[in-house]
Hints:
13 helices; 19 strands
Amino acid sequence: MIKKSKKLIALGLVSTLITTMLIGANKQATDETSPEGESQKSKLEAYIKFTRILNAIDQQYVDELNTTDLIDKALKGLLSNLDAHSSFMDKKSFKELNVQTSGEFGGLGISVGMKDGILTVIAPIAGTPAEEAGVESGDIILKIDKKATIGMTIDEAVSIMRGKPKTDIVLTIVRKGESKPLVIKITRDIIKIQSVYAKKIGDDILYIHVASFDKKVAHDVKEALLKDQNRTGIILDLRNNPGGLLDQAVKLTDLFVGKGVIVSQKGRDATENIEFKAHNDATDNKAPMVVLVNGGSASASEIVSGALQDDKRAIIVGKKTFGKGSVQVVLPVGDGEALRLTVARYYLPSGRTIQAKGVTPDIIIHPGKVARDSNNSFAIKEAELKKHLEKELEKIDGKKHDAKKEKAKTEKDKTIITEEQIYRDAQLKSAIDILKALMIVERQKQETK
């Protein structure tokens, strides 16, 4: 009874404090209305209703509840019902967020989001346990171990999936095209993310894969551009890139455009209305360019691809992007707790929004392999006949192992993309073909000047 009395006093104080603050702040304007048409009086009544319900739960609920836990549950429900990305973070959740942003943590290497209220894989991160286990962009996570994800928040899901390295977790996944759910066992590991991979395709195409937007992305891409002065075309691969830091998305785009708005954000508060513009010192604003995207490209990836598309700086190839175009800020509320709150939405240079719409490629290409005509595998040109027969003789003479070594050496060279790798990736193959056509047109323009 003593505990119950203390709770009633606490909740009563909450109600009294809320009422006092509202009356004190609005004693001269109780009948004024806000721009949305809500009167101060109705606001006060809503706050009082909230505290009455808390009191009713505390007095009548079948199990005795801790007042702090009850308030935390109310806050979590409140924030999660605003949108998929807003949340209340208790001490544990806030601490985990800080661990995540440090760049190294024990987990699966998977980026998730809410799509139509369902926990959905945005993308597995390259080289992580999730990718190696076969998790794919667009997978719906039905269960994490034995816990159903229906009604689960993103923070709760991430908290369960993160854990000590070398421990196992089981995801039950619904995948488009599969007749029944897939059960995937994944072993957690320390997640270290390499964000930028630069490779060559032939002698004149620079391929840059950006896996996520950490604090070094723009710097690393610029280094790759400066290092390769022989390029005449660029492929920027943003597939399965779940996003990251806004300033890096802006700086990356700024490397390829010399003027105009890259992205703007607009919110309810005028202080959140910001335009991010390009500068006139772009590293490369002329070389023909193709950007690869898919359903796993989200947030910062969509800003970059959408801005380059609006600016007509690049051709966008692949599948429609995820559609995450809102701005969140973390607001500490004391004692190790915080709110993650959506305060604005992103808008591309043309004024279109990304949120729930995504970026539609200029040319839609489905993933898969490129069919090759096996009947022509032995076809050789007359000019190559002698060289080919010499190689066949070398095989008979026992020198076949040299060819194997040469092939192995090529496959191990991580600075180039082999023909075999290209033909295993239909989207990349199409991007190369499109880029080569753009390069021919650009070369013809230069020759006619």
